[in-house]
């Protein structure tokens, strides 16, 4: 479908002398840059003609980004949400007027990401047609415009009326140079024996492992109930052609032992699946992944 849709758009833009920009989720980009079909090759050719290929909605593996750039595809990573009126961070840098900070950072500097921006929504539209501003700083709208003293429920926002802010559910770090690193969602954290495991840390280790390069295609790490530990760490993986599924668990666990991943973060079991479960927007469905893992 991408080939049929992108071709005419590019032709119109090129005739008009205008830059064309497209947006993909990481799963789509992964399939295009690693695919071996004729459609994949045509899609790669089309992507090279865009002025920019925006990739967001979830974390994109460093290997996929490197492969895309090696194929001369002009990828740019993005971060944003409906509440921020779309992308507000590009290639890890906030747009002008956007301010990033983390709430209650830990020793490593990681905490929940807080975004201040003049483009933030005023709140969520309620069934009665009003607006609930309880998850935003600033205020709910009134007939005369924003009311600076509107009530805010819960502890998910700051209240400075001059500094509208939104506290996301994403854990992040901000470097000394201002570069944003999104680590994962706070509600994805696995608690195993009292120790916290961010599944994205394990997924990144699998993605970056030289031992698994060309063997494991994609992975998702989840926590499943365990009578002794509360939760245990398990992984679902898809394999590259030629990898023996019977050896997948031993391969992944052995590879992670050679990294800096602590022992309690190494998956106790590794499940081989043909495809990772996805939501309609192309993100990995972690709830479905937990069910597949037996959780």
Automatic annotation (TrEMBL):
GO molecular function, one term: acid-thiol ligase activity
Family matches, as InterPro entries: AMP-bd_C, AMP-bd_C_sf, AMP-dep_synth/lig_dom, ANL_N_sf, ATP-dep_AMP-bd_enzyme
Source organism phylogeny: Bacteria, Bacillati, Actinomycetota, Actinomycetes, Micrococcales
Pfam families in alphabetical order: AMP-binding (PF00501), AMP-binding_C (PF13193)
Domain of life the protein comes from: Bacteria
Domain AMP-dependent synthetase/ligase per the UniProt entry, residue ranges: 20-125
SUPFAM superfamilies named among the record's database cross-references: Acetyl-CoA synthetase-like (SSF56801)
Protein name, entry field: AMP-binding protein
Domain AMP-binding enzyme C-terminal, chain residue ranges per copy: 215-283
């Amino acid at each position: 479908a991408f080939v049929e849709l992108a071709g005419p758009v590019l032709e119109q833009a090129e005739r008009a002398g205008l830059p064309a920009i497209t947006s993909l989720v990481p799963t789509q980009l992964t399939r295009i840059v690693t695919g071996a079909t004729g459609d994949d090759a045509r899609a790669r050719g089309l992507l090279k003609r865009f002025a920019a290929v925006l990739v967001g909605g979830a974390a994109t593996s460093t290997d996929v980004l490197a492969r895309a750039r090696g194929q001369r595809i002009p990828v740019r990573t993005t971060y944003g949400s409906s509440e921020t009126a779309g992308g507000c961070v590009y290639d890890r840098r906030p747009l002008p007027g956007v301010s990033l900070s983390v709430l209650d950072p830990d020793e490593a500097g990681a905490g929940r990401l807080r975004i201040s921006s003049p483009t933030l929504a005023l709140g969520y539209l309620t069934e009665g047609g009003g607006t609930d501003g309880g998850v935003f700083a600033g205020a709910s709208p009134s007939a005369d415009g924003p009311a600076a003293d509107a009530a805010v429920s819960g502890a998910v926002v700051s209240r400075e009326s001059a500094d509208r802010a939104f506290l996301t559910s994403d854990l992040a770090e901000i470097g000394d140079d201002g570069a944003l690193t999104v680590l994962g969602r706070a509600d994805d954290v696995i608690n195993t024996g009292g120790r916290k495991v961010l599944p994205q840390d394990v997924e990144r280790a699998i993605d970056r492992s030289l031992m698994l390069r060309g063997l494991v295609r994609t992975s998702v790490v989840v926590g499943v109930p365990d009578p002794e530990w509360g939760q245990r760490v398990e992984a679902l993986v898809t394999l590259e052609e030629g990898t023996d599924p019977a050896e997948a668990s031993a391969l992944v666990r052995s590879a992670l032992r050679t990294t800096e991943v602590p022992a309690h973060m190494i998956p106790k079991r590794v499940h081989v699946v043909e495809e990772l479960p996805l939501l309609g927007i192309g993100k990995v469905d972690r709830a479905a992944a937990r069910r597949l893992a037996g959780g």
